[in-house]
Design a protein that fits this description.
- This protein has helices at 2-5, 132-146; strands at 38-41, 65-69, 79-80, 101-106, 111-115.
- It is of the alpha+beta class and 150 residues long.
- It has one domain (35-150).
- It has a five-stranded mixed beta sheet, covered by helices on one side.
- A hairpin with a 4-residue loop joins strand 4 and strand 5 (111-115).
- It is globular, with a radius of gyration of 15 Å.
- The N and C termini lie far apart (40 Å).
- The relative contact order is 0.17.
Length: 150
């Protein structure tokens, strides 16, 4: 019901597109399926965001993530964010549900499945990237928002 009241619903009036067909459960222990699995990349363009497509420069539209298939253990508010003040820490986590990979949409309209090097399970909020492989995964997501590492 909440999805049909959302701002984007008039552009995509099918509630099922907000759910990943491969996600069969919700957060551990609840026994329910979540209403949506995708969140907007909340930090695209830094803190202020963009007004026009032509402003998407760093990273450019083909490298700037817009929608993220978020972990069922961190999806909370529709706003996906890579922590920008703590190195190697997710604010929200992307999913690892699809054979240790997740799906991202980009500002130019294409999408990609990213195979993770280091993490292989659903993570929660504020999860740390502890191993070098997990840190590479975090860096890849971070650069798709901010273009440069801190």
């Amino acid at each position: 019901m909440e999805i049909t009241r959302g701002v984007l619903f008039k552009y995509n009036p099918n509630a099922k597109i907000y759910q990943c067909p491969g996600s069969m459960t919700g957060p551990a222990g609840l026994g329910v399926k979540v209403a949506r699995n995708y969140s907007l990349q909340g930090r695209m363009g830094g803190q202020g965001g963009y007004v026009r497509f032509a402003e998407i420069l760093r990273p450019g539209p083909s490298a700037a993530t817009t929608f993220v298939d978020e972990s069922i253990n961190s999806i909370d508010d529709g706003y996906f964010a890579t922590q920008n003040s703590v190195l190697f820490q997710w604010q929200n986590s992307p999913t690892a549900l699809h054979n240790n990979s997740g799906t991202f949409a980009f500002a130019d309209g294409h999408s990609e499945r990213w195979k993770w090097l280091g993490f292989n399970m659903e993570q929660g909020l504020a999860a740390g990237a502890k191993t070098p492989a997990q840190q590479q995964d975090w860096q890849r997501a971070f650069i798709s928002v901010f273009a440069n590492l801190p």
